[in-house]
Design goal:
Layout lengths: L2 H4 L1 H6 L10 E7 L2 H18 L2 E7 L1 H11 L4 E6 L4 H9 L3 E6 L6 E7 H6 L6 H6 L13 E4 L6 H12 L7 E4 L4 H14 L5 E5 L2 H5 L2 E3 L8 H8 L17 E6 H6 L1 H9 L4 H14 L3 H11 L1 H4 L5 H10 L1
Parallel strand pairs: 1-2, 6-7
Antiparallel strand pairs: 3-10, 4-10, 5-8, 5-9
Helix pairs in contact: 3-15, 3-17
Length: about 325
Amino acid sequence: MHARYLSLPLLALSPFVSAEECGDVTIADMNWNSATLMAHVDQFILEHGYDCNAELVPGDTMPTGISMSEKGEPDIAPEFWSNSHKEMLEKGQKEGKLRFAGKAFTEGGEEGFWVPKYMVDKNPELATIEGIKANAALFPHPEEDGVSGFMTCPAGWTCQITAGHLFDALELEKAGFEQVDPGSGAALAGSIARAYDREKPWFGYYWSPTPVLGRYEMVKVDFGVAPDPAHYEQCITQADCLEPKVTAYPPSAVNTITTESFAQESPAAYAYISNRSYSNADMSAMMAWMEENQADGEIAAFEFLESYPQVWTQWVPADVAEKVKQAL
């Protein structure tokens, strides 16, 4: 057998491998900021660092997952929130059609109850749920006198169910809080922006990575307990859960998915894909930059590659990093 083929299993083991024949690669370009940024960064690095013929194709979570499982294309879905589609992905993996290549976000998708950092700087106990309850009067309800306000998720969103159950489990009503429905995702983001611009109090639910948490420094409130993924799944996420218990939010799995054929046929390119992962802080900052500059994924990819070399050069061997820098 030719030596090149003998070396394939070794290549697949290391993130730092020399570029082999890469060929055609298709990447799902999904229609939200973090995913389209990732897709364009992957395209640029694979094209210029690994000599792949990398093409972006329109994508969305469910249709992309089905197409990868059934037709073997596209080759890469850079950002896949796996919890909602666990069965489909595990089936594709068992059938030898899909691979979980790695984490799109190093910490996973992060949910929690948050307060502005300027409040915690003045009163450090507000970083804990006990401190929040003891100081409920610091968080006046926007519409009702004599009551404290907790900004929850808009009606109809899954996070309204989870935040509501944790509000009950933490006995926040007993501490003087009432839930405030912002009405929409934009209004929820706007309530943080307004509070921050005036250094006013704010306490409520939010998630990361998001432009809002890239723009405003918020502190995630410590519930004093570890995540209980089983209880979270079986009760906290269910509308009819009657006895919610306190649990920290478990991280949401956000993976990069590839086809098995891509992993086998382009081991060097696959090694890059499985090695690259964005921190929530970096991605939130990039998403805020995209909003502020009305930038699409292509422009944002150049901004990321030029501004974060200390991050992406860790994902590739030195010779590949050099080729990407030359292409920039």
